[in-house]
Design brief:
Layout: E1 4-9, H1 19-26, H2 32-40, E2 44-46, E3 49-50, E4 62-67, E5 84-87, E6 91-96, H3 115-123, E7 147-153, H4 156-167, E8 172-180, E9 187-191, E10 194-196, E11 204-206, E12 216-225, E13 228-235, H5 242-249, H6 263-271, E14 279-287, E15 294-298, H7 303-313
Parallel strand pairs: 7-14
Antiparallel strand pairs: 1-4, 2-3, 2-4, 5-6, 6-7, 8-13, 8-14, 9-12, 10-11, 12-13, 14-15
């Protein structure tokens, strides 16, 4: 991918945020670390002058971002027998299994066993390069132990179209989760900012609005199963670990969640054969970036979750 320059005028919604946060919200397909490197390289300008990541914008400021040339992909394609739900010349919708990380880590982890490796094999290297050498085609992510639907871009035009929809919150994402406890009311929302846990840095947490990013989760109870709640969850935002953090913060953590869950509950579900959090991305809808028509996809609960739910009902 050749170098490119993109610019935009600061909007009212940008004024209360650090510039690095503005950029990660505007370009959700790129990481905070990616933009940090651009700031360090002097590639981000406001009104013609290079600025720091902590810069705050004023109404009418002109922001310019100089994106560098992307290196050629050097990741190894791996045959993974992916569960492809839909594919055309622009996009792939894949049903990601649990236990599979989406892309290699910047520290050199998962270089040969990520979803990206499988996609490179399947597409013979033909994926969007917008998101860099470690994340070709990746527009959004699922946690390693979350299963379900993801859309991947096969070219840069599709990537930009999808990324814009994610940024504008026009993508509908529905998840299914099993919570510890009987959640009431049966329908509601959790509106609480999420940021890095100040003590446990590998965890996320509900934090003060000045320390985190806005996060909104809608839920609807599907059924109560004993002392547990099976819920349908709709994400408005897409923060790291959002569903897991939000429900844990109100006292109803996901069953099987080793990071945010309850040890006693997790032990019970381990006996049912569940080795991860009970969370599945079961529905995905967006506007196709080429045809401009709405497309919808569904993926049923995978066997480990359906079996755990069945065993709970019979317990």
């Amino acid at each position: 991918m050749k170098p490119s320059i993109e610019s935009f005028t600061a909007q009212e919604s940008d004024l209360s945020l650090r510039l690095d946060k503005v950029l990660t919200q505007r370009y959700p397909e790129k990481s905070r670390q990616y933009f940090q490197k651009l700031f360090e390289d002097g590639a981000v300008f406001v009104n013609g002058a290079p600025v720091k990541a902590s810069a705050k914008l004023k109404a009418g400021d002109m922001v310019e971002v100089r994106f560098p040339e992307m290196k050629e992909l050097d990741l190894e394609p791996v045959d993974m027998n992916l569960d492809i739900v839909f594919e055309d010349e622009d996009i792939i919708v894949v049903n990601k299994p649990p236990g599979l990380v989406v892309h290699p880590g910047e520290g050199g982890t998962h270089q040969n066993d990520s979803l990206v490796n499988g996609l490179l094999y399947h597409c013979k290297g033909s994926l969007s390069g917008i998101n860099g050498v470690l994340r070709p085609g990746i527009v959004h992510r699922l946690d390693k132990n979350t299963s379900g639907l993801m859309v991947v871009a096969k070219n840069d035009t599709a990537h930009r179209g999808l990324a814009e929809q994610f940024h504008d919150k026009k993508v509908e994402k529905v998840y299914f989760a099993l919570l510890a406890g009987m959640l009431e009311p049966k329908e509601g929302s959790i509106d609480a900012p999420i940021g890095r846990d100040p003590i446990h840095r590998k965890k996320m947490a509900v934090v003060d609005e000045h320390q985190g990013r806005t996060a909104l989760t809608h839920y609807q109870v599907v059924e109560y199963v004993g002392d547990f709640t099976y819920v349908k969850v709709q994400l408005v935002t897409g923060r790291t670990h959002q569903i897991r953090v939000h429900f844990a913060s109100i006292g109803f953590p996901l069953c099987g969640d080793e990071l945010y869950g309850k040890t006693k509950v997790n032990r019970k579900f381990a006996e049912f054969g569940l080795k991860r959090q009970f969370l599945h991305a079961g529905y995905l809808s967006f506007t196709h970036p080429r045809t401009q028509k709405k497309v919808e996809f569904e993926a049923p609960l995978p066997s480990d979750l359906s079996l755990a739910l069945e065993r709970l009902k019979n317990d």
